Amino acid sequence: MAAGAATQQFVPIDRVRDGIIVLKNGELRSVLITSSLNLALKSEDEQQAILLQFQNLLNSLDFPIQFFIQSRRLNIKPYMELLQARSAEVKEDLLKIQIHEYMGFINKFAEETNIMTKHFFIVIPYLPAQASGAGGAGLLSFGGGKAGMTGQDGFDAARIQLEQRIATVIQGLLRFGIRAQKLGTEEVVELFYKLFNPGEQDRDAPHVTQSTQ
After folding, report:
1. Cα 41 to chain center, whole Å?
2. How far apart are CA 94 and CA 60, in angstroms?
3. What's the pTM?
4. What's the domain count of the chain?
5. Which helix (H) or strand (E) holds 102?
6. Residue 195: in which H helix or E strand, if any?
7. Of 125, 149, 138, nearest to 61 (Cα)?
8. What angle do CA 193, 80, 33 make, to 5 degrees?
9. Strand pairing partners for 9?
10. 20 and 97 together in one domain
């Protein structure tokens, strides 16, 4: 218990509300997950147009954003469970044998090959009151100090400002073919659970009750 309490002191997150991360210093963060774009498959003119739109997006922002790429070993467990359930429903012996052989092939292939997936995120901050001092660390770091958000009214006002920033970024990304959406509470919890517990990538994050304070 003491070890768990000591570990929590190094996690800058206070709570998650409506998909919005509230840091211990009162600052807010929202995380967008985005699609990807392979520039190498585009023509030279298309590449230049995409880069120009990306430059225009960055120049149009009056707040910082952070790009974060997560590489994660592919979890085949849900797929294998789906195949197992399908096998149980099949009545034909030949088809059942083929499904089990296919499952064996997938398991062996996954063991021998390091299959990785990449996820692309953009972190958008909002500081209810700018102050000097150290901010969070890594994915949550933008600087700033103790923010001045208190009570439900303070949170609602800050959330409106943050959502305006989110809309600006999403619209700017769409101009060059990148889709983005805001992570919900459970998705945020899963993201940070696996960041802080890299050895438990196959486990689901614990369920977190939505905060109302």
Report:
1. 26
2. 61
3. 0.71
4. 2
5. helix 93-112
6. helix 185-196
7. 125
8. 40
9. none
10. no
